[in-house]
Every structure is written in C-alpha cells, then in structure tokens.
Design goal:
alpha/beta, about 25% helix, about 210 residues, Rossmann fold, two-stranded antiparallel ribbon, single chain
C-alpha cells in the first residue's frame, strides 16, 4: 500500500506555490494522512488540491482552503477552538496539532461516528465531539478563543458570535449558492470587525 510520500510532497509544493507560507500549517497537513479521511474509492486522489465528496452529500475541503482557514486562525497552540461541522474529521485533526483542544459539532450521526473512529485510529485525544445543531454552538464550553465553520450559513449565527472571546478570531464561509465568501471576524472590546478573504463554495450549514 502506498504511503503517499511523493503525493504529499507534491501537495506541499503546490500549496507553497499558491502562497501558503505558514510552516506550522504546512507541517500539520503533512502529518495528518488525508487518505484516511476520504472514501476508499477516492484514496488515490487524496493528495490532489481538490475538494472530494464524502458520505451524505458532504465534502472534504480542498487542501488549499483548509490551509488558508487554518492559517487565518493564527493559532499558537494554547487555544480552545470550536469547529462547526466535523464532517470527515480532517479539519479537526489538523487543528488538533495546532491548538490545545478542539470542540467539534456535527449534525449527521454517521459522519460523526466515522470521524471519531479516525481520531481513535490516529490517537488524537484533544478533540471533543458532539452531535447537534452547529448554529447554536456549544454554550457550555464557551467562550472560545477561535471558531471555525466548515459549512456555510446564509449569515453568521448570533449565537456563535456571542461564544467568541474578546480578541478571538472566527473564520467561516458565509452566504448561499454561488454568493459565498470566506470571512474573518475579530471580536474587539467594541464589537466585531469583519473582512472578506476570498470567494468560496461550501455545503450549507444545516440549521434548526
């Protein structure tokens, strides 16, 4: 069985060429085996810079987008991070190497069970998961230093904004259909500052 060493090196070179320079993020992408997070039939495509379908009409994000979003969180290793949308578990696994603890919410039970199995296989112990509505966040764990969404709400839920610490950072896709942007939100003493990063296309956040 291939260990994908060559493919991983090629992906790293591709990401560097696209402007990803954060060595910690690149190292995390090299350490986490993306081939374990995609369906077996797509394993040979795991290290292409492309999003891939997983179960239940969901996707695993393009590595470039994972890298951009992870770098935008500006992690130091001390943060508590809330992730909305566990999906395959890939983004949470990346975050587990770069933060103190990840709290990840998934709405679809089969995806959550598979993700939890992957975490156990990889001996990842600092990811806490639960089944639930991501739009309401994780009130009992709040406030969080960082929040990341891997699915797109039409507008960022107020409940999630309220669970972000002052001086915290949220990274999320926002919008519907083709009109989506990746946004970076900082909470200040006076409120929230938001900037658009780039156009994106994510599956919608399932609310309610």
């Amino acid at each position: 069985m291939s260990d994908f060493t060559y493919e991983k090196a090629q992906l790293t070179m591709t990401l560097r060429g696209m402007g990803i320079t954060d060595s910690h993020v690149l190292s995390a992408l090299e350490q986490i085996p993306r081939d374990l997070f995609v369906p077996p039939a797509l394993r040979d495509h795991a290290y292409e810079n492309a999003s891939l379908p997983i179960a239940l009409e969901q996707t695993i994000s393009q590595p470039y987008i994972v890298a951009i979003m992870t770098a935008a969180l500006q992690l130091t290793g001390r943060e508590r991070v809330l992730e909305i949308g566990t999906g395959s578990g890939y983004q949470a696994a990346i975050l587990s190497l770069l933060s103190r603890r990840v709290y990840s919410i998934e709405r679809l039970r089969p995806l959550l069970v598979e993700a939890e199995n992957r975490f156990r296989k990889l001996k990842i112990t600092n990811v806490t998961t639960k089944l639930g509505d991501g739009s309401v966040g994780w009130p009992e764990g709040a406030p969080f230093d960082r929040i990341i969404l891997t699915c797109a709400p039409a507008a960022i839920p107020v409940a999630l904004l309220n669970q972000l610490k002052t001086d915290g950072i949220m990274v999320a896709p926002e919008g519907r259909g083709r009109d989506q942007s990746l946004v970076l939100i900082r909470r200040t003493e006076d409120g929230f500052e938001k900037q658009e990063v780039l156009p994106v296309k994510f599956v919608p956040l399932i609310e309610g």
